[in-house]
Amino acid sequence: MAARTAGILGSIGALAVLSGCVPLTSTPTAAEAFPVLERPATDADTVVGEQNDPPLYEPDTARFLIEHEGDRVWIALTDEGAVCLLLGTNAVSASCGGPPIASPGQLQAGIELAYGGPEYRLLAAGEPAIPLDGFEQLTDNLWVSTDAR
After folding, report:
1. Dihedral, CA of residue 39, residue 131, residue 117 and residue 53, to nearest 10
2. PROSITE patterns, per this entry (predicted)?
3. Is 21 within a domain?
4. Is residue 127 part of a domain?
5. For the chain, where are the E strands, in sequence order?
6. Does residue 7 fall inside a structural domain?
7. Is residue 83 within 8 Å of residue 97, measured between CB atoms?
8. Residue 50 falls inside a structural domain
9. Which residue of 13, 51, 52, 137 is most buried, as measured by CB atoms within 10 A?
């Protein structure tokens, strides 16, 4: 009986492999979730403004995303690989976590950051992009609130 059960389970396993069954979800790397992290650094990627010493993120991983209504926005990684959203003009605020992973058809919270202005959300790349109610998409991964604060 044990040999018969093992043979049936082996056959089911072989069918799963041959049919191409793979897990439906996997955790992407930070670079897969945020492709901008893969591009070579430029002078614009240098985070300027007063900030923690030492900063919460690894400075050489920072990549400039956009300037929006006077706010400069960057993405960076911590030494543990967490993703950070950096926002600043004269002083730089940081919010780190994730990476936030999207599932098709589901809304995700992402990494949020706001101080005295609009709220920014950093969302992992994913298909399809889901519009966030009350937010405007600025870049592939960055959204900003359209509601007045």
Report:
1. -30
2. PROKAR_LIPOPROTEIN (PS51257)
3. no
4. yes
5. 63-68, 71-77, 83-88, 92-97, 111-113, 120-122, 135-137, 142-145
6. no
7. yes
8. yes
9. 51
- In this model, does residue 5 exceed pLDDT 70? no
- Kindly report the backbone phi and psi dihedral angles of residue 27, in degrees, each rounded to the nearest multiple of 5, phi listed first: -95, 115
As a whole number, the mean pLDDT across the chain is 72
Total domains in the chain come to 1
Alpha helices in 20-125 (DSSP H): 30-33
Which residues, including other chains, have CB under 8 Å from residue 69's CB and lie 6 or more apart? 117, 118
Cα–Cα separations (whole angstroms), residue 69 to 72, 77, 121, 128: 8, 24, 15, 27
Domain of residue 110: give its range.
27-145
**Interacting residues of 61 by C-beta distance below 8 A, sequence separation 6+:** 37, 76, 77
Q: Per the structure block, which two tokens stand in for 136? A: 């405007």
What is the separation, in whole angstroms, between the first and last Cα of the chain? 69
